[in-house]
Amino acid sequence: xxxxxxxxxxxxxxxxxxxxxxxxxxxxxxxxxxxxxxxxxxxxxxxxxxxxxxxxxxxxxxxxxxxxxxxxxxxxxxxxxxxxxxxxxxxxxxxxxxxxxxxxxxxxxxxxxxxxxxxxxxxxxxxxxxxxxxxxxxxxxxxxxxxxxxxxxxxxxxxxxxxxxxxxxxxxxxxxxxxxxxxxxxxxxxxxxxxxxxxxxxxxxxxxxxxxxxxxxxxxxxxxxxxxxxxxxxxxxxxxxxxxxxxxxxxxxxxxxxxxxxxxxxxxxxxxxxxxxxxxxxxxxxxxxxxxxxxxxxxxxxxxxxxxxxxxxxxxxxxxxxxxxxxxxxxxxxxxxxxxxxxxxxxxxxxxxxxxxxxxxxxxxxxx
Length: 368
What we know:
By secondary structure, this protein is mainly α. It folds into three domains: about 30-220, Lysozyme (Orthogonal Bundle); about 235-295, no CATH class; about 300-365, Membrane-bound Lytic Murein Transglycosylase D, Chain A (Roll). The protein has helices at about 30-40, 40-65, 75-80, 100-105, 120-135, 140-150, 150-160, 175-185, 190-195, 200-215, 245-255, 255-260, 285-295, 315-325, 325-335; strands at about 235-240, 280, 300-310, 345-355, 360-365. The strands form two sheets. The protein has a three-stranded mixed beta sheet. A two-stranded antiparallel sheet has the order 1-2. The radius of gyration is 24 Å and the shape is globular. It starts with about 30 loop residues before the first helix and ends with a strand.
């Protein structure tokens, strides 16, 4: 099957800037695509509909980076183009970054600001990451597999393919083998090594091609991809000093909350961070009026409830010091004894008081 080819305009097909790799001769990709499209029509419809807000921005950045235009549609299988999509492994955003990879690619991830939620910044980071993976393997199918499973898994799968799966107990690929492959440019094809990948990754690359087919057939799902919306939204910026609740901003301006939150997607709890002048983005022409309105709102005590997963070496005293509370209070709100050690990855509720412009007494953070 020829790779579906997608351009800046999904209604017009054009040659991709770079090849996506050889076609499979060991896997029936056509049958896989037809089966997946028929099995989950609701998912593809929702993902395609969500993409109308973001795909022009992603496509422009892919083109500017000189990468294959097909990569525009990778978020379809990552997140259905839902910025708030959160996986069981704490991958977040349309590109589904885990915290460590996001930070490695230059994104801010903390309790106040999580740039994985920002489609623009996370797209820049994802394209940097994909470019670096392609530089390692020289093959886009393998780069996609590494995006899903990590480069170590890709090396291991290729090594198993090279020895016919006879050394499955050997968890690391000998360095000399990697060096030989790189020197000779003899990198294994994804399809030849497919059976040695984890099940999720075995399906990941075929699902990517399924997403491309869904885009080509968007009309069959009742979605007009040319009916796009402008993103990022036009905005003016206002510097705010105290933590400011986006819900309060929307109320003061008489606007829907989405009008403010879509302009400030990186604010993890819908509140600007403390101890900094934060550039709050609002609809054009609204900054000056908002500045006057915020001046009438007195900051008040608000409790931020953080969902925290205990790490190695954590105890109530360390966490209390980090979050400005007491070990006794942490023990009380979590029903714990001060004498008992925390279990690794135990979920805790941690309260943090801040002075904020908000009508809410408590704000709850999601799991991180």
